[in-house]
Write the structure tokens for this entry.
Amino acid sequence: MADKLSESTWSGFTKKHKLELDDKALLKALAKFDKSDAAKPEPRLDALKELVEQLKKQIVALAKLKKALGDKPFALAKDQLNELLDLAEDEQKKAQAAAADDDDEEPDTPVLLTTKMVPLLRELRKGKVQMHALICTAGKNMAVLIMRRRIAPTRRKLLAQAVDATGGMKYYPADCLFEDKMLTFVVKTQVARMAKRLRQALLDQTELRFKVRVRGEDGAEETDGEDEDDAVDAEVQGAPITPASTAASAATKGAPPPGGPASAEQTAFVQRLRPLRERYEQALRDQHPEATKLRALMGFASEKAAAKDFAAAMQALKTLEKVLAAPDPRDGAQAPPHDAEAAADLRAFEQRLKRVLTRAKTKAAELGAAAVKQLAQQAAAAQAAAKAGDSGRADEGLAAIEAALDAAAAPDGESAASTPGEQATEQAAEQVHRIRQRLAAVQSQVDAVQNAGGRSGTELRALRRMLERQLDAGGVERAALLLERIERLLAEAEQEDQQLRGRLKALADDLAHAEQAVAQQVAALEKALKASQDEELSLIGAAGLGWMLGEHGARLKTLLAQLLKAEAAARSKAADRALQGVGAYLDHLESSPEIAACDGNDLGVAVSIRASLSFALEPMGAALAAL
């Protein structure tokens, strides 16, 4: 039994049983794993990927030697290899989790695709490193993410937002390096019109201009862009490369810009651009709420300047200045929107509490010392809840105090002698009490939707604040309308939730059907292998091919089940985990040589594992990325 995953375990086993096998590649992969360090998940993951691949190949090769080895040695060797494969896949899962933890240190923010990539591209330009890249396409749109660490599948959501798509996205993992004065992307797919779009995506995201080459797994290459050594040299020194910045750099040094002496319009453009660029770049670093618009305006200005249409370029800069000069909505209370809303809620609560306490003081003699003490304790508890952000418990506490004061407002029989004005006041108080009761009945639903965030959560928070203000001001009718709107919004949120669950269940069913179809295709292929006149192929069929899909399907099924059970507040994290499962499944389909071999078999058996499962997984990934 294999109790340890190491080169010595396998070499000791083959020596003990005197097995003569062609296992040099496997021994090399085991030695590489032995040298890897669990504290460094990235290289360890690379070593494990190679080891798992070699173990699977060795299992297939072993089947060809069954007759030569004999039944007993063959069975022992097969069991040993399968045990080593199980250990390797377990270690692979641990390394993937560790790598994901490392990767999660960098939060998913748009700057990963813009300013954070600029120093990475400069480092790549030096030609001493290789990094990971993930390319996303949706129609004509493309975005690319470059990172030092392996890119987790959860990052696909960020790229989907960058290409502004909710479906139809395709993702291409790649290695990124700088060779032959070109930024080179090595992708595991066929190259087709990618270089030009990649070059433009890099320019749009970082304002850096590179000559780009894309190399496919079939050896085909595609390039786009002219050699721009001068521009690249300027970029290495820290200046982003755009037509406008090239002109600005030339003007700063007193040299004529490319193409001859600068015209008056070009000089005016450069002079206006120079002080504006620093403000623009700072706004992007600060994640300005209009960052997308700012990038579009700067890109438009650069393009027009390159085309020598300086009138249009100047107009774009003027518009950009106006956007930068406009008040940032985040600066109103020097706090994020959520904190500002919470502060407004707390102020409204404090005002309402003050009125309730004033009313309690006027009734102190009628209530008695014990009742007043109890009300004071209730008020203190409600205030503590409000300061802790638990508005639901705070409102319930004040409602209980108001109900107690209402109950003690008049002795028995006094209501019969009350004036019409007093009767109207009592009726209004009763209406307020009923509204608060209705609100308390749906409080848990309100909290759940607010905790989930999004448009509905923001709208509910605003409606609740407006309702409290109306109740405090005596606007009972308006408060009742606001409550109806809250209840209607909750019903819509519940309906959307049910539709979402239905959609996810349908996608899970589609994947299950695709897996069933693939299982039938694989079974037919195994049957053809066994029936083959070729003895080696027959042995491979007997060994079985079902292991090639691994545990991806079962793991994704578990993650989807967890997502369907998750409450609204926990749904985002559950969706990210499920999206990671989809990404791992897709990556396996793309990279598995066994799957490629089955799809391309020449036995006359139609097998389409990669296409069938990808067709079911891609819409699922799009739906998860949108959550």
